[in-house]
Write a structure and sequence with these properties.
There is one protein chain. This protein is an alpha+beta fold. It is globular. It starts with a helix and ends in a 6-residue tail after the last helix.
Amino acid sequence: MCLTAIAAMAQNNVAIEYDVTNRDTDSGKPYTQKMTLVANPEKSFYFNKMSLYVDSCESTPEGKAKLREIQLKAWRVVQPDGTVTYDGRKLGLAPEKKEFLYVAKDKASDNISVYDFKAGELWRYEEPLSEMEWTIIEDSTKNILGFECIMAQTEYHGRTWMAWFSPEIPVYDGPWKLRGLPGMILNADGGDGFIIEAKEVGYTKQAIPSVYSVKDYTKGKRKQILADHEHYENNFESMMEAQGIKMNGDGSTSNLPMYDRQRRAWETDY
């Protein structure tokens, strides 16, 4: 299997589909979404396929118009009298961006570039690849999708991550920001319900993707962005009320719960 993987890598990039479980930004309830990693020994890109498709459409006037046409056609409802309305319950029937996170890694520059939507704005920031240090637990092994994997542990930005990596995939990378082990990380658990599980491993001739419309993202510092996002979440209702917008139709206060970074944030060290 290892020789097969090396032969495939000689011509293609690794492509891995993950199920990623964390907590909804608004409700705090656990949910699972699909994320993809396309990687080679030099670079990688972690993204949601639907989000990248929507961003590709939004990047040109022609694509934006076509996407809007598709969405309106899927959401429209023709009433018996011929009038046309749009049903919000049908939103899932058309392409829609729900995940904003992109993570690009570049070995040559020792750099991770993160793009995300926080505190009501698009942000980007950078950090070094080399700050993640692992302890390999060699006597703990298991098979994941036919690949023999070894356990490793790291303390990273406020969480203890337990990961399973396979040396049989000769790319030292992994989902999200996780990397730095002698193989590919297939599964990882950061505690508090933050779980990443590989569901499919393959190879692709697709080039490493990149973020569309980078100019739309404001550059900032990781800790400040995360702190601002927590402040935004904790004061969202009052900010809406200051604009004359009530969260409840009857004008009552929603009393939204305070933001619990341990249960809702991938990184808690800010």
